[in-house]
Amino acid sequence: MTRLTHLRAAFGLLVAAPSLIAASGYDAVDPFIGTGGEGHTFPGAVSPFGMVQLSPDTDTGCEIRDCYGHAAGYRYDDPTIQGFSHTHFSGAGHSDLGDFLIMPVSGDAVPLEPGDPARPGSGYRSRFSHDSEVAHPGYYAVTLSDPGVRAEMTAGARVGVHRYTFPADRAAHLVMDLRTSLYNYPGKTLWSSIRLREDGTITGSRQTRGWAPDRKLYFAMRFSAPLRDHAFVNTEKDITYSGFQGPGRGRDDLAKESGRALVARFDFAKLDRPLEVKVAISSVDEAGAIANLKAEPGGFDAIRAQSRAAWEKALGAVEIDAPAPMRKSVYTALYHSLLAPAVAGDADGRYRGPDNAVHQADGYTFRSTFSLWDTFRAEHPLLTLVQPEKVNSAIVRSLIDSRKVSPWGILPVWQFQGRETWTMIGYHAVPVIADAYLKGISGFDANEALDAMVASATYAPYGGLGDYMKLGYVAIDREPEAASKTVEYAYDDWAIARMAQAMGRDDVAKRFFKRAGYWRNSFDPKTGFVRARKADGDFRTPFDPTAINYGSDYTEGNAWQYSWFVPQDQAGLFRAMGDDEAVVDKLDRMFEFDNSKLDYSHAEDIAGLIGQYIHGNEPSHHVAYLYDYAGAPWRTQGRLKQIVDSQYKPTPDGLSGNDDLGQMSAWLTFTALGFYPVTPGSLEYVIGRPFVDRAVLNLPNGKQFTIVADGLDDGHPYVGKVTLNGKPLTRSYIRHGEIMAGGELRFTMQAQPNKTWATDPADRPYAMSDYAG
């Protein structure tokens, strides 16, 4: 998962006056949405899919504040800014990055410690006011009250540019802190280095042990004004390095320092013009960072103009006509959906892989930051509609090439900057690749891709796959979260089968269609829930469908959420649950469940509850659309309005849960258009109801697909009829090919439910058991 924000007063004006329509998608974006509450987004400068995310950090120390709440570095309700670092996740449920923090200081004294947020002047951090903040795609600005400095940020693909306007009567300084990180527990920094080269370029590196082990990152930095003085300080005390020494000083170095606790001071004279600081990063080496710096020439204004042009083009993939608050929410959602997977390869094509070695990309830009358990659902399907084929092709090639050099021989699970974290479950690179292939995205070797998918699905040491292949389910007495893993593996297996079938690899297709039915082995007909089974075949007891405990039967959820996760065969699941009436009744009970006696405070990701529906976390995201599969699409329409009204708003706390690298935002983008990819790989989108008056998809193939909602307002929340290119559409789904062909999808909205539209079984979305495997 972006809105127009100048001063916070202007922000308030936009919310208060819904008739105001921004001039462009770019102007409608407010990057502050999600920076409060549990959205975990950042407001800083980044280009579409940019390697650099240059953003303010209001706190970086887990010893001081809660890491989870500061996963993106910035939290809207914090009163101080510690500095501006160059790498951030957008909406992750885990913290890391925050590399190479820079902070301006004015005057004679230059503190080298951040200080206490509660004690102004105790360090280099500064107070600030939201009234002074401005955020647009690719641009951020704030006035730092204590040094009296106006700070501006912009970013290109691999560079970030700072611009600091200092008081004319005070000396200007910068502090660069190589000690700080998000999730900054003791011992995270394994090594760091910094040096001043003869040409005035500052270069350096960090090696950290955090969410991703042994991560290496390098930088190159140049100033628009000459240095008057500098100091490189190692603040670590009483430590013997045990032979883990950095290399000696080279002949082209004026100064150099290395160690595990470095901070630098850069001194300038009193400045009569703004100081620009241009920084490039690389996961390869310092030479790569220098080359990335040279690859994007120009100063602050040039990079800002390039970033704006890139964002206007990217956001222009969708044209939205809606009241200002909804328009702001949807364009910000689209913006947040275009931040990852991020560029992770250098301008010369080199990148660092999961083996921690350097590799060369062949004719494409390597990408990383794959939060696949989240983003396979809607984020990646959205990119197939709004991004050029080369972007989607690069994503698939990055996944395949990561597998080639993986020490484990499987596709990424949760990867950033080329490094694997093993976070979450499933092998969800599989549906990303299958969905892209089935939609005709080319530029990669399909057989090589399928082989990589099969390798991931048959790697027995991973997540109970050995038992899954032998028993037909993951055994809970041998592997935690077994119920969730069983049903997620079954869906991934179906995606392998679909792609193999399309390629004519019938032996693979037959094998994995059979495995796609393993969800039945975890479904308990007596209780009507998906449950964990032991190796002896018995379901584990005691059983409470509302219990949420990490490391238990389910992943970040319980039986209520996971019992609906059979996207490849919802009709088969529904037959196991009973008839349509029984399914609709159970869905209603899920949304209307009384949680008053339940306590989920121990579970960080359980947010946005509507009964036992949890919109703040991904396992629930498709559930509101399931009424369509039971012949009650008007119930989907009503639930979607309930979700959108309660879970999204154009304010800093406008996301009910972590944006998870764009998934929460992609859900809103699709839902606002009127349809959603319940089953990536099916080539279908399940119809809900639109939340915008009109939208135009400017498709990568040059065609346009228009969505129109006649009579849409709060008094007319239901779909009366639907036409596709002027002809009645009686089914509750639309095919990918119909969108890519261009045309018009028109909804006629009405006050009361239409209980006859799209109710026939033949008009319902895809289900595996309805077709011969």
Automatic annotation (TrEMBL):
GO terms for molecular function: hydrolase activity, acting on glycosyl bonds. Residues 1-22 form the signal peptide. Residues 289-750 form the Glycosyl hydrolase family domain. Gene3D superfamilies: 2.70.98.10, alpha-1,2-mannosidase (1.20.1050.60), alpha-1,2-mannosidases domains (1.20.1610.10), GH92 mannosidase domain (3.30.2080.10). Its EC number is 3.2.1.-. InterPro entries: 6-hairpin_glycosidase_sf (IPR008928), GH-type_carb-bd (IPR014718), GH92_a_mannosidase_put (IPR005887), GH92_N (IPR041371), Glyco_hydro_92 (IPR012939), PNGase (IPR050883). Keywords: Glycosidase, Hydrolase, Signal. It is an enzyme of class 3 (hydrolase). Residues 29-282 form the Glycosyl hydrolase family 92 N-terminal domain. The keyword Amino-acid biosynthesis does not apply. This is GH92 family glycosyl hydrolase. The lineage of its organism: Bacteria, Pseudomonadati, Pseudomonadota, Alphaproteobacteria, Sphingomonadales.
